[in-house]
Amino acid sequence: MTAAIESTDARRIRSAPVSSVSLRGRERRRTVVLGIVAWVVGLIFFGPIVWMLLTSLHSESNAATNPPSLFAPLTLSSYANFFGASSGASPWPPLINSAMMSIGSTLLVLVLSIPAAYALAIRPVKKWSDVLFFFLTTKMLPMVAGLLPLYLIAKTLGLLDTVGLMVILYTAMNLPIAVWMMRSFFAEVPLEVIEAAQVDGAGLLLTFRRIIIPLASPGIIATALICFIFSWNELLFASVLTSTTSYTAPVFLTSFVTSEGLFLSKVCAASIAISLPVLVAGFAAQDKLVQGLSLGAIK
Amino acid sequence: MSTAVTESAAQQTLSRASAWARRAPLLPALIFMIIITQLPFVATLVISFIHWNALYPNDIGFDWFSNYAAVFTDSSMLKSVLTTVFLTVGVVLISLVIGLLVAVLLDRRFWGRGFVRTIMIAPFLIVPVAAALVWKHAIFNPSYGLLNGTLTWIWGLFGKADSAPQPDWVSAHPLGAVDAALIWQWTPFMMLILLAGLQSRPLDVIEAARIDGATEWQVFRHMTLPHLRQYLELAALLGCIYIVQNFDAVFTITSGGLGTANLPYTIYQTFFEAHDYGQASAAGVVVVIGSMILATFVLRTVSSLLREESR
Question: Which residues from B are below 8 Å from A113, CB to CB?
Fold first, then answer.
């Protein structure tokens, strides 16, 4: 009832040129208010990250006060501490391990998924959607269920605690997502362009290198970045299948909490340092992030 | 006659060869996936029927369904099934609702919209273990965490800093603590998918409805929500798939204690601490079956979106 009255009101206002100014004013006020609400919600969600950054830049004793000393002097000592200025294990071996696994598996994913996506999108094989859904199903199965056999196989083959094993497993973890994403990016390449190139006498490889790859390159880069993020973040497999030589940055992070002494600032500094590659990759892929996370179902 | 036969045979081999040429680029990825993901599941299925504890290597044998019986009668296993359901449903529903509100806010034009969108995504881009560690130690810690620090500060404004309540958040609400950290990380994910849904609305139809005098709420209720339905479904189902498998937050914040052990954590524990390979595998198979039920819904939603795209 009130809605009906309001709407006839609105119609009358809109038809009268004088009072349309007041309507626009009300609309503008509403935009401002909702804009402020959006800012507040955004800042609430960003709050823990600001707090993390602030804590990492305080000395341990200033980080552990109650109420918090927000305006304590800033220092980089926790970062210096994390990167091995004083006691404690160096973060470089796990960081390098993580980088090798993430970059290695991402490259392998690209090598496997680009031809597969070509066969699914540009010259589709018969029953291509069945193949596509097979890839998706493998992603739906929880990794933890395959953990024990993989552990036993890796142990038998002497692959436990090696970078190569993790590269293979992270490739398997990301390949379904990559095939789905890549297919949806390749499907956007107009078929006429490809046909025109072939009419002009370009062979398969030339068409691929000169036409398809350049046109789909933003998508390929986004796919690579998302695969990198997922490999970098992984904890369960790394904590079971690696130990002293090829342990990863997330595993290193869990070993950081001690029962004695203050460690808050150091944990925050380590968390930020280890999250930095993911933040950079994520913001670089921001435009294609949704398409990737929804497995290409959303453009 | 005979030439025709050989011709058609030649054609057949030719078409078969071209079919294989089409399939060839697909094969490496397909074979890789089958070897790395399907074979271990078969092995898990086999081990789940075997009585096998690594601590007793001489006592291994086929054991029908006793591991499954153990999974479904072991009270801690049963509890972890329930915990997994509560954790997943709670996190998905709450982050979906908050994500929808934020998406609606970000769909409007306002000053600094791009910036707010960017900082909203940031929680999703913190390494999950790091996020869990920071929530546990820098936010929930009873003596110097952000929450209790803020309480002391507020009470301090009234000169009663000493009498400020200082709850031990993780001990008092273990599941709530895990929930909060996960909701913080997953709301951006929901928001991104729903925002994409909002922005794909047919604006001309909505404009027409507005001109006909429909209120904002009517437009939202009768036009936006129906359009968002499949995006809501997709976000919820993908969220379920990822959060059912969550290990990092439970492992870090409570170490599976205080009734927060979900199935992935319990499997990890059965495998790593109890060394009961048979029972861990049976629990793994249970998780797979649960995920497969979920997955059929995901596949249906995804394929309906895919069909719409090709139309």
Answer: 29
Residue B22 belongs to a domain: no
Q: Is A145–B38 a contact, with Cβ atoms under 8 angstroms apart?
A: no
User: How many domains does chain A contain in total?
Assistant: 2
| Residue in A7, A153, A275 closest to B127 by CB | A275
**CA dihedral over B310, A179, A279, B89, signed as positive or negative:** positive
In a domain, B5, yes or no: no
What's the domain range around B232?
A: 69-310
Supply the range of the domain harboring residue A29. Answer: 18-82
Instruction: Tell me the nearest-neighbour CA distance from B152 into chain A, angstroms.
Output: 6
| Domains in chain B, number | 1
Which A positions 267-286 lie with beta carbon below 8 A of chain B?
Answer: 267-268, 270-272, 274-275, 278-279, 282-283, 286
| Residues A27 and A130 grouped into a single domain | no
Write the residue in A42, A118, A253 that is nearest to B130 by C-beta.
A253
Packed helices B113-121 and A286-293: angle between N→C axes, nearest 10 degrees: 50
Which residue of A131, A138, A141 is in closest CB contact with B26? Answer: A131
- If asked whether residues A214 and A278 sit together in one domain, one would say yes
Please report whether residue B82 resides in a domain. Answer: yes
Quote the pLDDT of residue A277: 92
* Rounded-to-integer distance, Cα B67 and Cα B206, Å: 57
Which among A61, A82, A103 is the end of a domain? A82
Residue % of chain B over a pLDDT of 70: 90
Q: What is the dihedral of CA A142, A143, A144, A148, to 10 degrees?
A: 130
Tell me the β-bridge partners of B27. Answer: none
Closest of A52, A65, A47 to residue A276, by C-alpha: A52
- Two tokens at B161? 């800093």
Shared-domain flag, residues A114 and A59: no
Q: What is the ipTM score, two decimals?
A: 0.82
A176 and A103 belong to one structural domain: yes
- Cα separation, A103 vs A116, whole angstroms: 20
Are residues A69 and A145 located together in one domain of the fold?
Answer: no
A241 shares a domain with A220: yes
Say yes or no: A118 and A29 in one domain.
Answer: no
Yes or no: say if B180 and B169 are a contact pair by the CB < 8 Å rule: no
Q: Which of A261-265, B4-8, B65-69, B195-199 has the highest mean pLDDT?
A: B195-199
Whether residue A254 is found in the same domain as residue A280: yes
Size of interface A-B (CB pairs under 8 A): 322
Residue range B13-61, pLDDT digits in tens: 767 777 777 778 888 888 888 888 888 888 888 787 777 776 666 666 6
Nearest Cα to B306, choosing from A127, A295, A15? A295
The pLDDT tens digits for A117-164 are: 888 887 777 777 778 778 877 777 777 778 888 888 888 888 888 889
What is the amino acid identity at position B183?
Answer: I
Which residues of chain A have a pLDDT value below 50?
1-19
d(CA B185, CA B119) in angstroms, rounded, equals 12
pLDDT tens figures, B81-120:
888 888 988 999 999 999 999 999 998 888 888 899 999 9
**Sequence-ordered list of residues with C-beta below 8 angstroms from that of A25, at least 6 positions apart, any chain:** none
